[in-house]
Amino acid sequence: MNYAATLAVLVVLAFCFPLSVRLGAQVGVPEAVSVSILGALLTFLAATFLVRWQVNRHRRTMERLEAAREQVLADPQNPRAYFVGGEHLGALLLRLDRRREASEVIDRYARLGGARESEIVALREALARAQQRQRRAQGREA
Predict the structure, then answer these.
(1) How far is CA 50 from CA 10, 14, 79, in A?
(2) What are the start-end ranges of the H helices in 29-116?
(3) What span, in angstroms and rounded, lies between the C-alpha atoms of 91 and 106?
(4) Of all residues in the chain, what percent carry a pLDDT higher than 90?
(5) How is the chain split among helix, strand and coil, in percent rounded to 5?
(6) Which string of DSSP letters, residue by residue, matches 52-77?
(7) Exposed e or buried b per residue across 100-135, where buried means at least 16 C-beta atoms within 10 angstroms of its C-beta
(8) What is the spatial distance between Cα 85 and Cα 70, in angstroms, rounded to a whole number?
(9) 20, burial (CB in 10 Å: exposed 0-12, middle 13-18, buried 19+)
């Protein structure tokens, strides 16, 4: 379902709900049932919004990841090619929980001549924190 269809359904529901509650009350449907149905609809709408938001956020992250990879492939010796939208390719990979790939990218970035030492240190610290979280999570599972 696209956004226009979702908006149309919401408008129809917003218009029809008070009328449905009145009609239900005249027929003998208790208000508690009407309110329960409203709660179910609101829960459905909130879940729909949340899922769409997360999917769109993940899609944008994947697009940025692909753009960064293309930049690095196009010019692997340029330290600025490792950045998309001000975020480093290694940080994007860490956010997606791809620690092995992030480690390789950070190592390649560290070997470049124009790479800033402060950025390298920050990326390696982020990688170390991600690995510590993974070890703690594995320790809890055992």
Answers:
(1) 15, 20, 36
(2) 31-74, 89-95, 99-111
(3) 9
(4) 21
(5) 85, 5, 15
(6) HHHHHHHHHHHHHHHHHHHHHHH-TT
(7) ebbbebbeebbebeebeeebbeebeebbeebeeeee
(8) 14
(9) middle
CB 106 within 8 A of CB 90: yes
Query: What pLDDT digit, counting tens, does each position of 28-80 carry?
Result: 878 778 777 877 787 778 888 888 888 899 999 999 999 999 999 999 888 88
CA–CA dist 70, 48 (Å, integer):
33
Exposed / middle / buried, residue 95 (Cβ in 10 Å: 0-12, 13-18, 19+): middle
| 13 within 8 A of 41, measured Cβ to Cβ | yes
Structure tokens at 85: 């939208």
Spatial distance between the Cα atoms of 132 and 142, rounded to a whole number of angstroms = 15
d(CA 116, CA 121): 9
User: Cα 1 to chain center, whole Å?
Assistant: 20
